[in-house]
Specification:
about 150 residues; elongated; mainly beta; 4-stranded antiparallel β-sheet; Jelly Rolls; 5-stranded antiparallel β-sheet
């Protein structure tokens, strides 16, 4: 039976300046950032909601979970949406998701999409933003972000 080495296994055991692993790749700590926002009163048009804390440079976003009540609309607008991203890309983690009904959206998957793990650069991407569109008047939206750092 043959034995093969993974890319990071090899890098960790090869003493070379070109084989430096970024933080969180091996023996990284998984951390959680959670926050919520309560809509009250009419929120019409595009609104940005800053969530949680600033993520550290080099953090690897493992999974983002968005949950909400069935958010009420002042105009009966069934097209109220929320996207999850940052200043550089308002939909980096979720494209506009309808929140007229209660929703739980999960992604990116921890293992299924490892190629899609995003690494925070610390420029315009270290604060998670919810962007709402439509007319939301009441309800709660919750966000949970799992990321690896250190």
């Amino acid at each position: 039976m043959a034995t093969y080495n993974g890319v990071n296994y090899t890098k960790a055991r090869t003493n070379s300046p070109t084989n430096v692993l970024s933080s969180g790749t091996l023996a990284g700590k998984v951390r959680v950032m959670m926050d919520s926002y309560e809509f009250s009163g009419a929120t019409v048009g595009v609104t940005t909601i800053l969530m949680g804390q600033e993520l550290p440079k080099g953090a690897k976003i493992l999974q983002v979970i968005l949950g909400s009540d069935a958010l009420a609309s002042t105009h009966g607008n069934a097209t109220s949406t929320i996207s999850v991203g940052d200043q550089a890309s308002t939909a980096r983690y979720y494209a506009a998701t309808s929140v007229s009904n209660a929703v739980v959206a999960i992604g990116p998957a921890l293992v299924d999409q490892m190629a899609d793990v995003y690494e925070v650069t610390g420029t315009t991407d270290n604060v998670i933003r919810l962007t709402s569109a439509g007319s939301i008047s009441a309800g709660t939206v919750r966000l949970c972000v799992y990321y690896a750092a250190d």
